[in-house]
Amino acid sequence: MKKMQEIHERMMAAKTPEERAKLMDEQMQAMQQGMAMMNGMKNPHGGMGPNGLRHDMMEKRMDMMQMMMTMMMDRQSIENAPPAK
Known about the structure:
The protein is mainly alpha-helical. It contains three helices and no strands. The protein has one domain (2-38, 49-71). Helix 1 (2-13) runs antiparallel to helix 2 (17-40), helix 1 (2-13) runs parallel beside helix 3 and helix 2 runs antiparallel to helix 3. The relative contact order is 0.15. The mean pLDDT is 79.
């Protein structure tokens, strides 16, 4: 998640469209890796295990999903922004 946040901050601060496009590609790759990690967080034992642990895992997954949604919305606003004059 820290890597995704760092890429996001760099993308928001990018000065040129080329730099931004490169960072968007990097961000997409990091988000795909994050999705793979989230899928790995699913409880393989069908719901068995301590409730506290399951709750913590669910909370981490929700935090990551929220961060990804924010990044996608910011990315969309950048892509749809009028070109700088």
